[in-house]
Amino acid sequence: MKQRKFSYLVMVAVLFGLTMLMSACDLGGTASSATPNSGAAASNTPAGGAATSSTPATAAGAAIRVGLVTDVGKVDDKSFNQSAWEGVKGAADKNGYKANYIETADQKDYATNIQQFVSQKYDIIVTVGFLIADATNKAATANPGIQFIGVDQFQDPTKSPKNYTSLVFQEDQAGYLAGALAAYMSKTGHIGAVLGTDNVPPVYRYGEGYRQGALSVNSSIKVDTIYHEDNNAFNDPDWGSKTAGTLISNGADVIFGAGGKTGNGALIGLAQTAAQSGKTLYAIGVDTDQYLTVPEAQKYLLSSATKGLSDGTSTLVTMAANKQAPGGNFTGKVGLAPFHDLDSAVSQATKDKITKLTSDIASGAVKTGVAPVKPAK
Amino acid sequence: MQICGTDFWVTLINLLSNTLEFAAPLTLGALCGLFCERSGVVNIGIEGLMLTSAFFGFIVGSYSQNPWVGIIGAVISSVVLSGLHAVLSIRFKVDQIISGTVINILAVGLTGYLNRLFVDSGTLPAAVTLPKLGIPGLDQIPVLGALFVQPPITWLAVILVLVANYVMYFTRWGLRTRAVGENPGAADTVGINVYFMRYANVLIGGAIAGLAGAYFTLESTGTFETGMTHGSGFIALAALIFGKWTPLGLWGAALLFGLSQGLSITFQALQQSSDCQFGVSKDVLVMLPYILTILVLAGVVGRAVAPAADGQVYEKGR
After folding, report:
1. Which residues of chain B does A15 touch, with a Cβ-Cβ cutoff of 8 Å?
2. If residue A330 lies in a helix (H) or strand (E), which one and from where to where?
């Protein structure tokens, strides 16, 4: 009996140990990449190394260090985190900075992860996403010597320190372009959008911009914008796929998917429905050129409403390294991704109109009329 | 007939079809709980079983490029993990809640870590998904036919509810399972092997939870995301309790939960035009089933009584 009790204790101890090890590994694998010298840029490509050695003035010890803290998710999420990381890496490879990242596993860890880079005295800290903005603002206030860049974080410049620059986008403009394109391409006069929660302002701007853009082309078009509820809004591909299916069965023939994995689910769901039913359906992706990131939907992916995330991040990191970061909100570029496989499906007339609309929006000649955040009822 | 600018029947059939699909993983998860708890083993690790099998279904399916083989991988992984729960709670007499918690935490870490390994390797083949299957004849009916074209695990969920109902109430196995769950001492004295019945039922439950996990990857978009089951295993437990530990009851509860998810899509689709507002927020619709569950748990809508020996360790000769 005594022996049984002992083996039971050992068993439980071993299991808990194993459990902790496993969950620690998940984080550990990512946290370890935060230690200097193991960074992806340092070991990245021979090209990176060549760039470093071609700038003789840059001594290894004096290299500027850039740390990136992701929003909940990973640097290969085929979305925000990945684009921001590519921007950081691009700037680092080009100019010989050292770049590292920490992947955030849970919202409660935002401040802790930023602090990891702060205590290692990084020169520039990039944080990704709307939700990490508060933690970034606090860290910037506490550490005036470090440059902070918030990707996709709208800030109130009167309440933020000078060493905190936000990269923002007018998603309503990108959505407007996507909506106009969808309206030109729709045969049924009915289009849809599957979105994350409208309580996250960029998502709301995408959705409403899409609606306004479509209406600007065809005032009688039916536009369905369906938002996920708050909980798990960006990680529910199953819901996204079913919602796309519902909209298609109601008659929509172009679907805009904007909401992380949920939106990707809509693109894949549309591709599955199109393949099974033989209907002519088009999907429009979001943030990055999703032709490259969602291979399952390639055949039906018309375009993507893109934000210049990598480009903007890279620009800001370089500016910050030269002590020229402007502070406040820095507006990045938006646009539409190439048509890829469906290039021949889009008429030249439509292409011309989209090109003109893109420049009109950039110049301010066309306004979307979308509120920056969802108006309270 | 038109409603808010869309065809009423198309909308209704689509809603029912979505309900069936949303309910499938909840139904299967709750059936897993049914087999475990009816034999006297509480299993709060359903969430972990589902997450693990979702991952292994995805990996096995991708590498074999065959979603059906993926299902087998999902089921095996879930059976192995529920075997761990069985050994801990039956052989080593660990508190079953703790053992279930271990499984849930282990699943998050294990799948997150392995997913990382496979994604990083960059050699992962394209994801595969299960085709939808129609019932010949019925699927040809205009409009209504769409309801009879569903993916295989959704069909399996319906079939397994009926099978479970038959097994539990009309077979010797079911009688013995329920006896072991209500009064293991009495069952033992008439010669039923309590340990064997508990092991077997936990493993059967594990296999069913494996199907629920496979739903998330193989039957949906084919891709795995960290933590993608997001609490479905616990909702399945709620359905089990709401359904008073009976197969048909839990199915009804799962359908209700599925309906509320389906309604959150349908209502938004209908409320697109300004002249068609119901004044009901989607968030309220999503919340409703849980309020009902609380009412059931509080005994307001008829008490739910668990099997008498549910969660109790059986020690021979006591």
Report:
1. 88, 102
2. strand A328-331
Dist CA B271 CA B282 (whole Å)? 10
Interface of B with A in 272-311 (CB under 8 A): 272, 282-283, 286
* DSSP β-bridge partners for residue A101: A68
Pick the CATH number of B2-297 from 1.10.1070, 1.10.3470, 3.40.1000, 2.60.290: 1.10.3470
Instruction: Tell which of A5, A18, A229 to mutate to test the B interface (max B CBs under 10 Å).
Output: A229
pTM, two decimal places = 0.81
* Å between B107 CA and nearest CA of chain A: 9
CATH of the domain at A185: 3.40.50.2300
Q: Are A203 and A352 part of one and the same domain?
A: yes
Q: Closest chain A residue to B227 measured between Cα atoms? A: A235
Cα A35 to Cα A21: distance, rounded to the nearest angstrom? 19
Name the residue facing A250 among B6, B102, B223 (closest C-beta): B6
**Residue A223 forms beta bridges with which residues?**
A191
Residues 140-169 of B with CB under 8 A from A: 146
Of the pLDDT bands very low, low, confident and very high (cuts 50, 70, 90), residue A9 is low
Put simply, the answer to whether B106 touches A238 (Cβ < 8 Å) is no
Q: Who contacts B142 (Cβ-Cβ below 8 Å, separation ≥6)?
A: none
Considering only alpha carbons, which residue of chain A is nearest residue B285? A229
Question: Which residues form the domain of A262?
Answer: 171-307+339-363
Query: What whole-number distance in Å separates Cα of residue A164 and Cα of residue A148?
Result: 5
- Give the tokens for residue B262: 């389906």
**How many structural domains does chain A have?**
2
Find the angle CA(B89)-CA(B93)-CA(B95) to the nearest 5 degrees. Answer: 70
Strand order in the sheet with A164-168: A98-102, A65-69, A124-128, A147-151, A164-168, A328-331
Listed by number, the residues of chain A in 225-244 with a beta carbon closer than 8 Å to a beta carbon of chain B are 225-227, 229-232, 235-243
Regarding whether A357 and A216 lie in a shared domain, the answer is yes
Among A25, A74, A246, the residue with its CB nearest the CB of B269 is A246
ipTM summary value: 0.87
- Report the residue of chain B nearest A235, measured CA to CA: B228
Closest CA of chain B from A137, distance in Å: 28
Q: How far is B185 from chain A (nearest CA, A)?
A: 21
Q: What is the pLDDT along chain B (318 residues), one digit of tens a residue?
A: 788 878 889 999 999 999 999 999 999 999 999 999 999 999 999 999 999 999 999 999 999 999 999 999 999 999 999 999 999 999 999 999 999 999 999 999 999 999 888 876 767 888 889 998 999 989 888 888 889 999 999 999 999 999 999 999 999 999 999 999 999 999 999 999 999 999 999 999 999 999 999 999 999 888 898 888 988 999 999 999 989 999 999 999 999 999 988 988 888 888 887 777 777 777 787 787 778 778 777 776 677 788 999 988 888 876
| Contacting residues of A for B120, CB less than 8 Å apart | 76
Spatial CA neighbour of B265 closest among A206, A253, A226, A260: A226
Does the beta-carbon distance from B129 to A272 stay under 8 Å? yes
Residue range A292-337, pLDDT digits in tens:
888 889 999 999 999 999 999 999 999 999 999 999 999 999 999 9
Whether residue A91 is found in the same domain as residue A179: no
Q: What are phi and psi of A304, to 5 degrees?
A: -140, 145
A95 and A197 both lie in a single domain? no
Q: Flag whether residue A6 sits within 8 Å of chain B, measured between CB atoms.
A: no
Residues A175 and A139 in one domain: no
